[in-house]
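User: My collaborator sent over this chain with a note saying "see what the structure looks like." That's all I know about it. Can you take a look?
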Amino acid sequence: MRIGLAGVGRIGAFHARTLAGLDFVDDLVIMDANIEATRAVADEVRASAAPDVETLLASGIDGFVIAAATPGHASLLRLGIAAGVPTFCEKPVAATLEETIDLAHFVAASEVPVHVGFQRRFDSGYQRARQAVQDGELGFIHTIRANTHDQSPPHESYIPTSGGIFRDCNVHDFDILRFVTGREVATVYATGGNKGADFFSAAGDVDTGGALLTMDDDTVVLVSSTRYNGGGHDVRMEVFGEKGTIAVGLDHSLAMDSAEAEVDFPRGPRNWSFLERFLPAYQAELTAFAEVARGVRASPCTVQDALEAFRVAEACELSRAERRPVALAEIKGN
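Assistant: Without extra context I'll predict from the sequence alone. Here is the result:
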């Protein structure tokens, strides 16, 4: 397959290396507004370089991967669909709720498949948890804990366009929560605080967030996020049921120490970024996209899925700002 890639920043360069190592990719064509970065990554992975997205889309590609900065996602996605090319887009597909809704309508009116990049759906631990819930192995589910804790904050320039901690970090938790439980969020109550760099407050954001969610079947969900988890990158989910409990991310890479003197868990090594934590999931995700592009499977994560996760994040930001519970029914969805 001939795959086109737009964007060679941190996640884009990572995707370029991943794609270059997959057997189904015969040719990789990349582009970025930063010409020097494009050439450097192209040389590293032995890819072709395109001067602009129009040239890339006209180069006979079988699939289009969007890994550019968030503000460019929506326009690039529209171009990919207009060109009739199966498209993979990193989250979020758009920067605002209204634009995400418009994109959902645009995609629904097209026959071009779109796969949104929520890589946790391809992590073996989350898939195992989903199966345990679906099979009734845990009985009824009453409580879930989910967290996204980054080891260190991103660059200051990233925060003003990130959308805020709930849209940027916890949106992954909101998507995987829907994936694992098969349920929808009914209400949220969210808060947050700042103890780190001033640029979070300056952008109207927080460096640490927490939310209490109630699902439409009354399952209680506790969600947390932070930009300052010095012990390492920590992404987990714990699902508590009537008959048992299952945990995702509870292995020797766990980014914490036991206070019990005789406990040697976890033994490490720890993960220091999401790129390490989810490398196999990213590989599986892009392999799945190839199947979507070939027409042998439906999109495993649609723009509609992305919209629903974005609505939960939107509700959390509203709740944090207004210091009140917010029902999802208050958030526009179509």
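A starting point for your reply to your collaborator: DSSP finds twelve helices and 13 strands in the chain.
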